[in-house]
Write a structure and sequence with these properties.
Length: about 170
């Protein structure tokens, strides 16, 4: 199994169940075994007698096991349609269609013990977008444009000017 194939399997389960939600819905033993398997991906070498392909295949089976156990315990995937993303490490937001859908997502997150989880309705996002007219202008001027996070210099560092001295820049 390739890394891309494993990524596709993980994305499928996280879209269906929510980011980081499945391990919360299974036994502690299953969640721990799955976390240990995921940790193998950060090692320099696969465990003795295994290949990386075998490790990834094992993790893919782990995703299926999490799904199966969560369903046996009476849990259900997120109500469709819902979209989630991480806005910071460990902090997830979901987009709901309306206030009723938002309420269902918030209750489910509370039941599941999901922390640092916020739900926004499409209408709330529209208010936010209208409050930042430059974003709408960029999207209008450049169809297909993608809004990316800003690239900030490391704390305490001053960005270097791209215009060198002696080329008509400041300080001439």
């Amino acid at each position: 199994m390739t890394p891309a194939e494993l990524d596709a399997i993980a994305a499928k389960h996280e879209r269906a169940w929510g980011i980081g939600r499945l391990p919360l819905l299974v036994s502690a033993e299953t969640a721990t075994r799955f976390a240990a398997a995921l940790d193998l991906l950060t090692a320099d070498f696969p465990p003795a007698g295994q290949t990386w392909e075998a490790v990834r295949a094992s993790i893919a089976r782990g995703w299926a096991a999490l799904d199966g156990e969560a369903r046996k315990r009476g849990h259900e995937p997120l109500p469709p349609p819902v979209a989630e993303d991480e806005w910071a490490p460990g902090k997830v937001f979901a987009v709901a269609l309306d206030n009723a859908h938002k309420h269902v997502l918030e209750l489910r997150a509370q039941q599941d013990g999901r922390k640092h989880y916020s739900v926004w309705t499409v209408a709330e996002l529209a208010v936010l977008i209208r409050a930042i007219p430059v974003v709408s202008s960029v999207k209008d001027l450049f169809p297909g444009a993608e809004i990316l996070p800003p690239r900030l210099p490391p704390i305490g560092k001053v960005p270097h000017d791209d215009i060198p001295f002696g080329a008509g820049g400041v300080g001439e």
